[in-house]
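#struct-help
A.M.: can someone run this one for me? Single chain, 62 residues.
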Amino acid sequence: IDKKRRTNEKDFVVVIKATDDCTYRNVIDILDEMQINVITKYALVDIADVEKQLVSISQQGQ
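D.P.: on it. Structure tokens below:
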């Protein structure tokens, strides 16, 4: 939200990338959050293989 405040509204876009273990409910929840936080520009896109690897590595460190 802080980033949203510091960015011109015309330039602010949220990119949503769901992993393979993401549920339909997870997607609905994040779309609800877009509405709650008045995010008018967002894109739901496929996650790249390298990004999947980064998520896996970050989860191993938890």
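A.M.: thanks! The chain has a mean pLDDT of 90.
D.P.: also worth noting: The first strand starts at residue 14 and ends at 17.
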